From TrEMBL:
Keywords assigned by UniProt, alphabetized: Membrane, Transmembrane, Transmembrane helix
Species whose genome carries this gene: Aquincola tertiaricarbonis
Keyword set includes Transmembrane: yes
Entries under PANTHER family matching the protein: TRICARBOXYLIC TRANSPORT PROTEIN
Superkingdom field: Bacteria
Annotated Pfam families: TctA
Residues that span the membrane, as ranges: 20-53, 108-135, 147-163, 170-187, 207-225, 355-378, 390-407, 414-430, 470-488
Organism phylogeny: Bacteria, Pseudomonadati, Pseudomonadota, Betaproteobacteria, Burkholderiales
Protein's name in the database: Tripartite tricarboxylate transporter permease
Domain called DUF112: residue spans: 20-439
InterPro entries: DUF112_TM
Coiled coil segments of this chain: none
């Protein structure tokens, strides 16, 4: 009962005119970002992080959350009409959605994607409402050894899942951990790896690193390597579904929602795996298998889109209750929290209850806003595809540069921004994932502090990390994540 009372208070906070405006602005920008191929919510949130200096925490977190799940709604539009996924998680939507559009059913594909996103997003928000306080209650019982092992588990799983190889993932992670070491040591007070540069004494700014790795690197990559791309667009038809299409879509939405939610809640989650799983499930259960890969099956759009949105919403559970990000954008959202001096984790629901419940309430409100923005106004979003890429990416570079300079008015920060941008470009060019860099940089210092506390509790004995039942279980999970996939591969050979 207490949960629902707090949720009502959250609605009261999220329902104020200024917070509603932030939610609408976030959903609108998120949809636009999703529609425009290649930018993605991580780049958008990173680029807009400097606003945290001016806006109060509740408004800005509602704004960023709106961008995050708004991009998932918008990503289906380009997948269906252009066969160009705006987001990695929309790749599966493009497989069937584009074929439906080529056969004159673009409207039905867009409708099932938008309504499926709404259904899955709303159900997942109910799960977040109920599960977040329960997870936080048990997370309080974790001590420094368990917390350290949990962070190592997050490092192992995120680096294994994001990117094309574990080695590349770990390389990115170690770059992030190294960047996180720069600055003053909190215990000894000594400067570490600052190279005598006074600007580095306070450590590297997460905002600067995120903007450089995502926004600047993305713009440089487009300019240097993508060149001119001729895109052909399918004709947009009236956005509606027939009775039979509703009948085929509803079970797919529900199945996919319950596939997506668990993947969002675990550190190895993300939204790519559940979308592929949902696609495979729908293909198996469909009575119209002949449409898959030929004329386009509506279940092949409904399922992956719902799974995608369910997973994205559920990522808030580990982010808010454990402080563990499970996706690129969640890692940058964690950086936004830290900019306000707020550390997500088990205590967050007690120390910042107003913010957390307003954020959860804004998810319900944002889902309704996105349904309205994406169904009747889809024609407007399609016009965005006519924006020339040259002007678009020039605007992103200007916005990123001004935003970072506005933080400390430091010319050194601008050199650092473009240096990090070049690093991001190299990582992207050679298929190294950028997210583990940000995760390593944010969680590295926290993991270091937890390890030091754990060793203090264990009087210097490393065995404290596997003597307690929970930390031993987490250690077993880490070994399983690292060893099992290779073992399965060896057995198959």
């Amino acid at each position: 009962m207490d949960v629902w009372n707090q949720l009502l208070q959250g609605f009261a906070t999220a329902g104020t005119p200024i917070n509603l405006l932030w939610a609408l602005l976030g959903c609108t920008i998120g949809t636009a970002i999703g529609v425009l191929p290649g930018i993605g919510p991580a780049t958008a949130v990173a680029m807009l992080l400097p606003i945290t200096l001016q806006v109060e925490p509740t408004g800005s977190m509602i704004f960023f959350a709106g961008i995050y799940y708004g991009a998932m709604y918008g990503g289906s539009t380009t997948s269906i009409l252009l066969n160009t996924p705006g987001e990695a998680a929309s790749m599966v939507t493009a497989m069937e959605g584009n074929k439906m559009a080529k056969n004159g059913r673009a409207g039905a594909a867009l409708a099932t994607a938008a309504i499926g996103s709404f259904v899955a997003g709303t159900i997942a928000t109910v799960v977040v409402t109920i599960a977040a306080p329960v997870v936080a209650k048990y997370a309080v019982l974790l001590g420094p050894p368990e917390y350290f092992m949990l962070m190592v588990l997050a490092f192992a799983t995120v680096t294994s899942v994001l990117g094309k190889s574990t080695l590349r993932g770990f390389t990115s992670l170690f770059i992030g951990l190294a960047l996180g070491l720069i600055g003053i040591d909190q215990i000894t007070g000594q400067a570490r790896y600052t190279l005598g540069v006074p600007e580095l004494m306070d450590g590297m700014e997460v905002v600067l690193i995120a903007v450089g790795l995502f926004a600047v690197a993305e713009a440089l990559h487009v300019v240097l390597f993508e060149g001119r791309v001729v895109e052909t667009q399918n004709k947009l038809t009236k956005v509606h579904m027939t009775k039979l299409e509703w009948k085929r879509s509803i079970p797919a939405w529900l199945r996919a929602t319950f596939i997506g939610i668990p993947f969002g809640t675990i550190p190895a989650g993300g939204s790519e795996i559940p979308t592929f799983l949902s696609y495979a499930t729908e293909k198996k259960f469909s009575k119209h298998k002949e449409e898959f890969g030929t004329t386009g099956a509506i279940e092949g759009v409904a399922g992956p889109e719902a799974a995608n949105n369910a997973a994205i919403t559920a990522t808030l559970i580990p982010l808010l209750t454990l402080g563990i990000p499970t996706s690129n954008t969640a890692a940058i959202l964690l950086g936004a929290f830290q900019n306000y001096g707020i550390q997500p984790g088990p205590q967050l629901l007690d120390t910042n209850a107003t913010l957390v419940w307003a954020l959860i309430a804004s998810l319900y409100i944002g889902n309704v806003m996105l349904l309205v923005l994406n169904l009747p106004m889809v024609g407007l979003w399609v016009k965005l595809l006519k924006v020339p890429k040259a002007q678009l990416y020039a605007g992103i570079l200007i916005f990123a540069t001004v935003g970072v300079y506005g933080m400390r008015q430091s010319a050194f920060d601008l050199f650092l921004l473009y240096g990090v941008g070049l690093l991001g470009l190299v990582l992207r060019r050679f298929d190294f994932p950028a997210a583990p860099v940000v995760i390593g940089m944010i969680l590295g210092p926290l993991a270091e502090a937890q390890l030091r506390n754990a060793l203090s509790i264990g009087e210097g004995k490393w065995s404290i990390l596997w003597e307690r039942p929970m930390s031993a279980t987490l250690l077993a999970c880490i070994v399983a994540v690292l060893v099992l996939p290779r073992l399965v591969k060896m057995i198959r050979r």
